Amino acid sequence: MSISIEKSTFPVTGMSCAGCASSIENILKKMDGVNEAGVNFASNSVLVSYDKETVTKEELKSSLQSAGYDIIISTENATEEQTEFQDKEYKEVKKRTLWAAILTLPVFILGMFFMHWKPGHYISLAFATPVLFIFGRSFFINAWKQAKQGNVNMDTLVVLSTGIAYTFSAFSTFFPDLFISRGMPAHVYYEAATVIITFILLGKVMEEKAKSNTSTALKKLMGLQPKTLRAIINGEEQEIPIEAVEKGNTIIIRPGERVPVDGTVIKGSSFVNESMITGEPTAVEKTEGDKVFAGTLNQKGSFQFTAEKVGKDTFLSQIITRVQEAQGSKAPVQKLVDKIASIFVPTVIGIAILTFTIWMIFGGELAFSHGLTTAIAVLIVACPCALGLATPTAIMVGIGKGAENNILIKDAESLELGHKVDAIILDKTGTITKGKPNVTDEKWLINENKEVLRSKLLALEADSEHPLADAVIRRLKEGGVVPSKMKDFKSITGQGAQAIDENGKTFFIGNRTLVEGQGIKIDKTLNATIQKWQDEAKTVVFFTDEHQLIAILGIADEIKTNSVQAIKDLKDLGVAVYMLTGDNQKTASAVAHQVRISNFKGDVMPSDKSEFVKKLQVEGKVVAMVGDGINDSEALAQADVSIAMAHGSDIAMDVAKITLTTSDLASVPRALKLSSKTVKGIRQNLFWAFFYNVISIPIAAGVLYSLNGFLLDPMLAGAAMAFSSVSVVLNSLRLKNIKL
């Protein structure tokens, strides 16, 4: 890649539909120096690859501003600016929808039940005017933006149908004789215009609500890096802002603090929680010469390290950048309805114009009145209510059904894509396994005074900083063990710990190296048990005194109860299952064998997971990613369908478009089945919406007039339109009764 080629993700403002996303892409792609532009409508961002020597960020911004859009090019507070804009937009749309609904209600009542009451026409006009041109102005603005680009979408049809219905109604209100003298009924259709605007505004509120949360994950990732740190500057300990740290600075980390930048430990030791990198719940011991990474959490110990990577070079910053790129590089959300609209809208407009023209030529004395009536009837009967309802009603019912089954869907796109998934990647820890080490096996070699020995073991582990100590403590306390008194506790680096009881006897807890260091031999029978546990991915802990081995404990992250069946269900759906984990290859192999996954990989870094997702996507697969940790966030952002497990990190749940409120893996195949059923419902809805249009549009155009003198009154056209909408809603409600 040329040095002058820049690849940047910019937050976008002023984008209200998938058509806008397409327009922004086209505007940018036409600019000299822009190689590629991909808009992510869901996250309100655009990923642009451009030659910075040919075109500047300011020129990109200016070009979009001329078309009514904008991008945020400042790097300092871009996320905050976009969040502020989205929050403001959501509140504005919510307010407009509320007022539109309040004013639409009396218009609807007057239009449906008091249609011949003349004063009601003026009241309806007074209420309908602000609904269309104040609270519904965004449809008119967007339709104009699309028209300037030579495009049409559903907003175009909304504007034409509501605008013509309103204009016709206004003329009927003020000049009824103008229509009556030409043999036309002076009907008004204010209720049709206002109901359409209000309902579609309601859909916008739901959309803006979802989009207002898209930057939460990145904000939380950025929050993992502390704002200040303590460093040794000129021989003195000072607190400095994160921006001031430089390579080579010596940084001090105390218990409970997050590591601010990447570096190497030069003094002290501790255990550091690196789950954001590996996904593993067990903290990693850090001593002199070990690497530490920004965003990881120190536990009880203290240490000093030399800063080696700062600012955008840290591991955490690279994760943030890759999450941004993954979110921004997705293809724009082109809803099926908008794709259909590109053909349907011009066709309907053409039919309406053709209808009017034919009547004007062959209509005789009532040519104008019949031509205008039929043209309006065509536009009203083809109004996008049923078409517009086809997808959102099915999605809404599908989302509700998902919630009943512990599946929270944040993004309708994921629900629409789920049925196409043919490859799924599972994280190990917290997804297939419980994500918390537990004592799974105990073998006591000395049963005399066993309860006394258990109390000494509890006392020894209670003082230990080792992350596996919690599992032993939990097991013993559940058994009602009370700790005895121990003194002179001492941690043995890389081996374990020791302490002395009230009788002066020393006890040890730790690994095999510690046991062998005491000169204690392990017999062959016990070695077979130890090997078996290790083959099952269990960590073996040894409890001993100065002379003999007392007990061995097996500690492991247990596999969840339903994991095996859930993986089988996924395979039965024709989905290829992969397991990726930051844990070592031996543990990965043991877990994969137990759950019958043949495609697995251990020692995987966060970036490796996202690269694996890309690899499968390049092969043409629709990829789902299931995870629960910060280390999964890149892959979740990159995947076509992203699913976060309950009780995982907030960041994983924010990045993922589907969150399971249970930690049960069985909900994953249910989510894919729900997608299949929902998409089937959408297709049925679209069929019924078009069925009514295919039948109604020719009748509205007057094809029956030559046979029996029948012309479809615009009022009846409105009723037909309403009936088509009702049928779509009823069909969507059938999804409530499906079994997953």
Q: Helices, strands, pairings?
A:
Elements: E1 5-13, H1 18-29, E2 34-40, E3 45-51, H2 57-65, E4 70-71, H3 78-113, H4 118-135, H5 137-148, H6 154-174, H7 176-180, H8 190-211, H9 216-223, E5 228-233, E6 236-241, E7 250-253, E8 262-273, H10 275-278, E9 284-286, E10 291-292, E11 297-298, E12 302-309, H11 315-328, H12 336-362, H13 367-381, H14 385-404, E13 407-409, H15 412-417, E14 423-427, H16 428-432, E15 433-444, H17 450-462, H18 469-478, E16 486-492, E17 496-501, E18 506-510, H19 512-517, H20 524-535, E19 539-545, E20 549-559, H21 563-572, E21 576-580, H22 585-595, E22 599-601, H23 606-618, E23 623-627, H24 633-638, E24 641-644, H25 650-655, E25 658-660, H26 667-701, H27 705-708, H28 714-733
Parallel strand pairs: 14-21, 14-23, 21-22, 23-24, 24-25
Antiparallel strand pairs: 1-3, 1-4, 2-3, 5-6, 5-7, 7-12, 8-9, 8-10, 8-11, 8-12, 13-25, 15-20, 16-17, 17-18, 18-19, 19-20
